[in-house]
From TrEMBL:
The keyword Phosphoprotein does not apply. One of its GO terms (biological process) is L-proline biosynthetic process. It is found in: Cytoplasm. This is Pyrroline-5-carboxylate reductase. It comes from Pseudolycoriella hygida. Pathway: Amino-acid biosynthesis; L-proline biosynthesis; L-proline from L-glutamate 5-semialdehyde: step 1/1. One of its GO terms (molecular function) is pyrroline-5-carboxylate reductase activity. Residues 171-275 form the Pyrroline-5-carboxylate reductase dimerisation domain. NADPH binds at residue 59. NADP(+) binds at residues 11-16. Belongs to the pyrroline-5-carboxylate reductase family. SUPFAM superfamilies: 6-phosphogluconate dehydrogenase C-terminal domain-like, NAD(P)-binding Rossmann-fold domains. Residues 7-106 form the Pyrroline-5-carboxylate reductase catalytic N-terminal domain.
Length: 279
């Protein structure tokens, strides 16, 4: 039994869209028949058809036939897409309660409003999701535009929260939080790979090393969330005086892991701001 009756549309069927769409279908939040996806080349949307979704090359069709419409193109495509869907938006959104959900990194609600200036009352929610939504462990932040009602927001919140954690935040925080949550999976995959490399260097078979490294990150993350303890306290619980771990931690500090992660978040935040200006 689907938990949401709304028809869900995706304009742009790439990685982020598929993480959301396939996650919703896999968890039974919606039925595949509720999903419509558009992209410029229908042959590239095969993975959507495999999960039972309908595909089209017409972005306007997604607007016309969906209730909640995810904008999932790259930021620089926003103006093009807005002009491609203009007539469908004008024809169908006035009388119907359609809600648009942008996942575009860096693009503000004000910039979205400029791109959709032909429909000044458009209901738009700006989000910054992440790809672990595909396995129901996503982390999404969102801010609603002026015309989004409480009822609309509850629907969008239900949908996003069904794939992990989703939380409303002041819009000015989205770029910085997104640099942690949206980009974070890429940093963490690098850490998993590197940790596994360490194991491989010590003679552990690659697949085994990856599985153990990933499970270790999962366990550590759950421990932080479930105990509520500061990560430094939990780290101290692992570091026996004169033991093995503190020798490893010393090497991480020497290698600048902490510094590198802080810099990564700073650079990604700055890049979000640049992307917004370019859209
Ligand atoms: N990949 C990620 O982890 C995250 C991505 N985002 C945002 O998601 C958006 C999409 O990023 P990805 O999925 O990573 O990129 P992607 O390249 O995988 O997907 C973009 C899709 O847009 C399609 N497209 C291009 N022009 C189009 C048009 N005129 N009409 C319809 N579709 C068109 C492309 O064919 C492609 O499938 C970006 O704005 C990005 O900032 C946000 C958070 C996380
Ligand atoms: O790299 C990007 O621009 C997108 C936004 C956050 C994660 N991926």
């Amino acid at each position: 039994m689907a938990k949401l009756d709304e028809r869900i549309g995706f304009i742009g069927g790439g990685n982020m869209a598929f993480a959301i769409g396939s996650g919703l279908v896999a968890r039974g939040i919606i039925k595949p028949s509720q999903v419509l996806v558009s992209g410029p080349h229908i042959e590239n949307l095969e993975k959507w058809r495999i999960i039972g979704a309908t595909t089209t090359e017409e972005n306007g069709e997604v607007v016309t036939k969906s209730d909640i419409i995810f904008l999932c193109v790259k930021p620089h495509m926003l103006t093009t897409v807005a002009s491609q869907i203009k007539s469908s938006v004008v024809a169908t959104t006035r009388e119907k309660d359609k809600v648009f959900v942008s996942v575009l990194a860096g693009v503000t609600l004000a910039q979205l409003a400029v791109s959709f200036d032909f429909m000044t009352t458009l209901k738009m929610v700006r989000t910054l999701p992440n790809t672990p939504m595909q396995v129901g462990e996503g982390c999404t932040i969102y801010s609603p535009g002026s015309y989004v009602t409480q009822h609309d927001l509850e629907k969008v919140d239900l949908l996003l929260n069904s794939l992990g954690l989703a939380q409303q935040v002041p819009e000015k925080m989205i770029n910085a939080i997104g640099a942690v949550t949206g980009c974070g999976p890429a940093y963490v995959y690098t850490v998993i790979e590197a940790l596994a490399d360490g194991g491989v260097k010590q003679g552990i078979p690659r697949q085994m090393a990856i599985q153990f490294a990933a499970q270790t990150l999962l366990g550590a993350a759950k421990t932080v969330l479930q105990t509520g303890k500061h990560p430094a306290v939990l780290r101290d619980e692992v570091c026996s005086p004169g033991g093995t771990t503190i020798h490893g931690v010393h090497e991480l500090e020497r290698g600048g892991l902490r510094n590198a992660l802080i810099n990564a978040v700073e650079k990604a935040t700055e890049r979000s701001e640049q992307l917004g200006k370019q859209s």
